[in-house]
Amino acid sequence: MLFQRTIALLFAACLAFGALAQQPEKQKVIFQVSDADPAKWSLALNNARNVQTELGKENVLVEIVAYGPGLGMLKADSKVEARLAQAQTDNVALLACENTMVNTKTTKADMYPGISYVTAGVTHLMKRQREGWAYIRP
Q: Do 112 and 84 form a contact (C-beta atoms < 8 A)?
């Protein structure tokens, strides 16, 4: 009887481990925004939303990194400000390049609230690509 219980427990543990091992890895995508063009900013936000709609928000990690002339997308007075709030609600990570901020004398007080920061947008893109993230430049 003890032997049968032990076998049953081992079998259940194997099934549970197999189910965990079969969980699909989340898809990962990063969008580059480096143009001072509100139409491109909207396109990046549309693309992020479309990816989440197609794959399911729970199945994908999405980041948008803005640097150079694209930094304006993430400023407090951005022309796509209302869309930024929705992106944050949808768990899209909005990342501003601190190198660009230093070069343009932009402070965190100038930026849209709740965004995150990376030291260098370009190297963040490189890091994400090495990690297997899909890279999109709208």
A: yes
